[in-house]
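Appendix B. Chain record.
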Amino acid sequence: MISTVIRPVSRPFNFRLALGLPLLVGIILVLLELTTLDMDLARLFYEPAAGDFIGRHSYLLENILHDRAKQVVIAFSVLAIVGFIGAFFVDRLKPFKRELGCLVLSLALATSFVTPMKAVTAVQCPWSLKEFGGKETYSELLSARPATDKPGRCWPGGHAATGFTLFALFFVLRDRRPRLARQAFVFAFTLGTVFSLGRMMQGAHFFSHNVWTAVFCWLICLGCYYFILYRPAVMADRATLPDPARA
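Structure tokens predicted for this chain:
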């Protein structure tokens, strides 16, 4: 007697591209440290006459695009946690238990990695640098930090992670709702980009800080998807059992 167990199948996914592209971006970012691109872009948002960044005290950028937007994403994360817990008890949610679990884990990891990395790297924000009216000395990401009483807390970009963490929606939806998954990807990328631009206008981050954040968030969400949801093919586990008729 033959018994067959068939697991759900995931849509084909190019992991070489999904891993290779962000790694290539990372290499490019390291090489960009040899240029002045970050400084040049930051100067676009700095007003020497006023001695400050154009968006430093913007109500829209600080109160709406930063504080309120972050609260909305936090609320969404709480709903995801509630949904995951509910999937253990509510019949309509039980089929989505894995997806909800993957979503919760992705959101948690893609936001919690920022603070420890900021503490370890101690990179200064643009608004703290002498070039932009501050007192601190600029240093490249991979170079030693100049002595200071106020270590920086600006790499990677924290608020950018609030948007890019929603890459998790793309992976959670891709096997069940591929069209909606693509829309979720565009939304997450756009939101993360808008948040990044807003913080650059305020002098809170350099361009590269936010791109690094996008890379990390993507890789974290990809990893969660691979280990929790990805099923590359129909897997049939067959076990030959004794036939009662022949016993």
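Further analysis of this model is presented in Appendix C.
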